[in-house]
From TrEMBL, chain A:
This is Amino acid/amide ABC transporter membrane protein 2, HAAT family. InterPro entries: ABC_transp_permease, LivM-like. The keyword Transmembrane applies. It is found in: Cell membrane. Keywords: Cell membrane, Membrane, Transmembrane, Transmembrane helix. Residues 1-28, 579-601 are annotated as: Disordered. CDD domains: TM_PBP1_LivM_like. One of its GO terms (molecular function) is branched-chain amino acid transmembrane transporter activity. Signal peptide: none annotated. It is a multi-pass membrane protein. The keyword Membrane applies.
From TrEMBL, chain B:
GO terms for molecular function: L-isoleucine transmembrane transporter activity; L-leucine transmembrane transporter activity; L-phenylalanine transmembrane transporter activity; L-valine transmembrane transporter activity. It is found in: Cell membrane. It is a multi-pass membrane protein. GO terms for biological process: D-alanine transmembrane transport; L-alanine transport; L-isoleucine import across plasma membrane. It comes from Pseudonocardia oroxyli. InterPro entries: ABC_transp_permease, BCAA_transport_permease. It holds the Pfam family BPD_transp_2. Belongs to the binding-protein-dependent transport system permease family. LivHM subfamily. This is Amino acid/amide ABC transporter membrane protein 1, HAAT family. PANTHER family: BRANCHED-CHAIN AMINO ACID TRANSPORT SYSTEM PERMEASE PROTEIN LIVH (PTHR11795), HIGH-AFFINITY BRANCHED-CHAIN AMINO ACID TRANSPORT SYSTEM PERMEASE PROTEIN LIVH (PTHR11795:SF371). The chain crosses the membrane at residues 12-35, 42-60, 66-87, 121-143, 150-169, 202-225, 237-261, 281-300. Keywords: Amino-acid transport, Cell inner membrane, Cell membrane, Membrane, Transmembrane, Transmembrane helix, Transport.
């Protein structure tokens, strides 16, 4: 429901908007593979878009399946039960309807960057139709499930798909404009309220996404597709909002009120337990995401800022976790002393930092790919040693179980809290703690990035020799990147140990390092929200796609390949990075294949 | 003494296997400066390809006779690996030829994960280790030194095939037109193009040769250890990469020497260093780090070729 508001907001605001950059006129003629049909369609683009929108809505209201998919109590009408009930407008039908409506409205109004917005909406409709159609086909046993059988007709997915495609094609035919730039400046309190509304919407959206489809698994086989379908719809809506230039504008507004934004965002994050996601299960999921987000931010310092590819980074999370486990007073630890949690976090971070400096020391002599291999080797040494229970510190295959909960006085962190009439679920305190931890890590990252040190890192990333020539002492600064990155992971590790109560070497394998790296890259290297977004996506997806658990890693590998192929700069692109990753033919020519690679990555 | 000699023999056998994989690494890195992480998986795919051929397409009467089964399995494994390697180059790496260096590396990681999982999901029973039929004369002979040094015939096969293929490949690269084209492409792709060489074809050829050797290695590995699992690619791939670096990357002879050294380190380290066989892998990584830090050009690499 939250995207309803943002959607309608976008259309009303754009109508009365003063714009600085007038979008460029649409190109007169199309070239390329689809040139013929597109040029033929160009004069009728507006009609095409409206037809596409109407078809989408009609498709949403038709039956989607020739049989009843779900007789169980969950997820009731909210999601997929209404495949055979054309008029229950909830779940993905609601999403398609909204996208279709927005398509029609935008197509008819004089809106800047109209075609680009409509294309985003069309892509959303197409993706939702394809996802649900495919799912019904596969689960329902063949094409009969989405066409006609036994006298039942269910062309919903096909009609919606056609609607989406017509929308996309017509919008493209109409000519895609540049993204407009908005320059509104409102009174400060108006902007504050606006930001507040936006952030609360984001909070609700996050809660909605997190819980959509419910808990995955055998009980609820729909979790995956409901979740993906919502994601697809949201992707369409966001593409449209982004094309309208409004997202960029809101970003600028929040940049103007930096402190306010940060505080409100933090409060919103802390308010998640009060939304629909406030159950013990989702709190656990959210806390795990937080651990990996904090770690990913640490990795982002090493990879994103300093450009030093680290393939064994998860070892630092492991070191932090094992240090914490040994100092927790758990029965299985050989040290057997109990140290207060806050102190444990510091010790874990320091130990991890020391190891970080050790792992980073080869950077003095090794660069690029070779450095990646050195870090990989360190990571493997860590896993092997932990597996063999080195010095009795890691428990080997038995792990270190029964790590006591963090306690404040007599209150244990996994207990539930009641605030007056509101009963908060167990694990909430862990969630709160991890949110604060992530916030602290973000703060560190943000300040470092804009500091002298951060600029030195970026300079090293861009060109190490030039940086050295500018007087940057590259050696210590590179080691510092490893040290700080490892410390952040160590913090997260200490938290991880207490939160999960079991630390086993198995959690820190090479694949985890790759996943973290993928999170940083997927989100956008060198950006703060990027790492958090990437970590969220990569650690929520497996939770949601339990029914595809067998294919999880296969899809993950393919996704990595596809991301590198089509969007190497990640979802949120860093400005410097963007310039660097642009596939400029001139750049490509300069970087002659035989030439020595100068970039340090 | 006999223990020491046995470990030397074991090390050389394992090492020649690693050398065969390392050649693929070293050739690909030499020609497009890409650490092809997925190469270890190509090796694994070859083993499964050979096994599938023996299991599903060849009558058991034929499998029972090693002089039929061995060449069939080797050729099948090599073909499967070659096809996968070429497809990988075509669809994953070629589009990124001019992309920043991080992109192909991450892609290689992705391909590696995907290949491993594809085998796990789609090969029947691949979730656990699968027994591999013996493809050579079983048994061993004993060299009468001390308590006797046992040498398995399969191990001899391993060494002979590996060194033979490596030798043949080196001759190919040194003596033939295509080999010269490969060397030219690895030195300067643009100039090679000006000389009438099609770099794309040469790169495909490189992947094909490397893949075929890895496939052979996979089948030999299966028949040597008598079972295969999907993790074999990653672990041995890293060893092979270490071997390639050790020998000086881009250098076939170096890869072979590096492989043998790795084999010896593993066998002797597992025997004599603290921690025993549980830590033998660790010693390989320690060697890797030391070599990369102190002599990144390896044994045979030219010292002035600084690599970023």
């Amino acid at each position: 429901m939250s995207e309803v508001t943002s959607e309608s907001a976008s259309t009303t605001e754009t109508a009365e908007a003063p714009v600085r950059t007038v979008p460029a006129a649409p190109p007169a003629r199309h070239t390329g593979r689809l040139a013929g049909p597109l040029n033929a369609l160009a004069p009728h683009a507006k009609i095409g878009m409206v037809v596409g929108g109407v078809l989408s809505i009609v498709g949403a209201y038709l039956a989607w399946s020739t049989f009843v998919l779900n007789e169980g109590a969950y997820p009731e009408r909210a999601t997929l039960t209404m495949f055979v009930e054309p008029f229950g407008v909830t779940g993905f039908r609601l999403h398609i309807t909204l996208l279709g409506l927005a398509t029609i409205v935008v197509a008819l109004l004089r809106v800047p960057a109209k075609h680009r917005i409509v294309r985003g909406l069309g892509v959303g409709v197409t993706a939702v139709a394809v996802l649900n159609g495919l799912w019904i086909t596969v689960e329902g046993g063949g094409l009969g499930a989405i066409t006609a059988s036994d006298g039942t007709v269910a062309f919903g997915s096909i009609v919606a798909l056609v609607g989406g495609l017509v929308t996309v094609l017509s919008a493209t035919a109409g000519g895609l404009e540049d993204k407009p730039v908005w320059e509104w400046k409102l009174a400060w309190w108006v902007e504050w309220i606006l930001l507040l509304v936006v952030f609360v919407l984001i909070l609700l959206l996050v809660a909605e996404v997190l819980t959509s489809g419910g808990q995955g698994g055998v009980v609820n086989p729909y979790a995956g597709v409901v979740f993906l379908s919502l994601l697809a719809a949201l992707a369409g809506a966001f593409a449209a909002l982004n094309a309208s230039g409004l997202l960029t504008w809101v970003g600028e507004v929040s940049e103007r009120h930096r402190v306010f934004s940060v505080v409100v965002l933090l409060l919103c994050a802390l308010a998640l337990p009060f939304t629909g996601a406030g159950t013990e299960y989702w709190m656990t999921v959210a806390s795990n995401i937080g651990v990996y987000a904090a770690t990913a931010i640490g990795l982002n310092i090493v990879v994103g800022l300093a450009g030093l590819l680290d393939l064994g980074y998860v070892a630092f999370l492991g070191i932090g976790a094992f240090v914490a486990a040994n100092l927790s007073g758990a029965a299985a630890s050989v040290i057997g002393i109990h140290v207060p949690f806050l102190l444990v976090m510091v010790i874990s971070a320091v130990v991890a930092g020391i190891f970080g400096a050790i792992v980073g020391s080869p950077t003095l002599r090794v660069r690029g790919d070779y450095l990646a291999i050195v870090t990989l080797a360190f990571g493997e040494i860590f896993v092997r040693s932990a597996q063999n229970n080195i010095a009795g510190l890691t428990g080997g295959a038995n792990a270190i179980p029964n790590i006591p909960q963090v306690a404040l006085g007599s209150f244990q962190f996994n207990q539930s809290i009641s605030l007056g009439p509101i009963q908060l679920p167990g694990g909430v305190m862990y969630y709160v703690a991890i949110v604060l931890l992530v916030a602290a890590v973000m703060l560190v990252f943000g300040n470092l990035k804009n500091s002298r040190l951060g600029r030195a890192w970026i300079a090293i990333r861009e060109d190490e020799d030039a940086a050295a020539a500018m007087g940057i002492r590259t050696g210590p600064i590179k080691i510092l990147a490893f040290l700080i990155g490892a410390m952040l992971a160590g913090f997260a590790g200490a938290f991880f140990a207490h939160k999960t109560a079991v630390v086993a070497y198995d959690s820190f394998r090479f694949l985890e390092s790759v996943t973290l790296l993928a999170a940083v890259i997927l989100g956008g290297m060198g950006t703060i929200p990027g790492a958090v977004l990437g970590a969220s996506i990569l650690f929520v997806l497996p939770e949601k796609l339990r029914e595809f658990a067998d294919y999880r890693l296969l899809l993950f590998g393919l996704a990595l390949v596809l991301i590198m192929r089509f969007r190497p700069q990640g979802i949120i692109a860093d400005k410097h990075r963007k310039a660097e990753l642009a596939e400029d033919p001139e750049d490509a020519a300069k970087e002659a294949p035989g030439a020595l690679p100068t970039e340090v990555k | 003494m006999s223990i020491f000699l046995s470990q030397i023999a074991n090390g050389l056998m394992f090492g020649s296997l690693i050398a065969l994989i390392a050649i693929g690494y070293t050739m690909v890195y030499g020609i497009i400066t890409l650490i092809n992480f997925a190469h270890g998986e190509i090796f694994m795919v070859g083993a499964y390809g050979g096994l599938a051929t023996l299991t599903y397409w060849v009558p058991t009467a034929v499998v029972a006779r090693w002089y039929f089964a061995l060449p069939i399995a080797l050729v099948a494994g090599a073909l499967v690996s070659m096809l996968v390697a070429v497809a990988m180059e075509r669809f994953a790496y070629r589009p990124l030829r001019n992309a920043p260096r991080l992109a192909p590396l991450i892609t290689a990681l992705g391909v590696s994960v995907a290949l491993q999982e594809a085998v796990r999901v789609f090969y029947p029973g691949a979730t656990a280790a699968i027994p591999f039929p013996p493809l050579f004369i079983q048994g061993a002979f004993v060299i009468p030194i001390g308590d006797g040094v046992v040498i398995r015939y399969t191990g001899i096969l391993l060494i002979v095939v590996s060194l033979g293929l490596a030798f043949g490949l080196e001759r190919f690269v040194e003596r033939t037109r295509l080999g010269r084209a490969m060397r030219a492409t690895s030195q300067d792709r643009d100039t090679a193009r000006l000389m009438g060489i099609d770099p794309d074809r040469v790169i495909v050829l490189t992947f094909a040769i490397g893949g075929a050797l890895a496939g052979v290695a996979g089948v030999l590995y299966g028949s040597y250890l008598n079972n295969i699992n999907i993790d074999m690619g990653f672990q041995n791939g890293i060893f092979a990469f270490t071997a390639a670096v050790l020998g000086g990357i881009g250098n076939i002879r170096g890869a072979v020497v590096g492989g043998l050294v790795i084999g010896l380190v593993r066998a002797l380290g597992g025997q004599y260093l603290p921690g025993g066989t549980a830590y033998d892998y660790v010693w390989i990584f320690v060697v890797l780090i030391i070599v990369l830090v102190f002599r990144p050009q390896g044994f045979f690499g030219e010292s002035e070729r600084v690599r970023a």
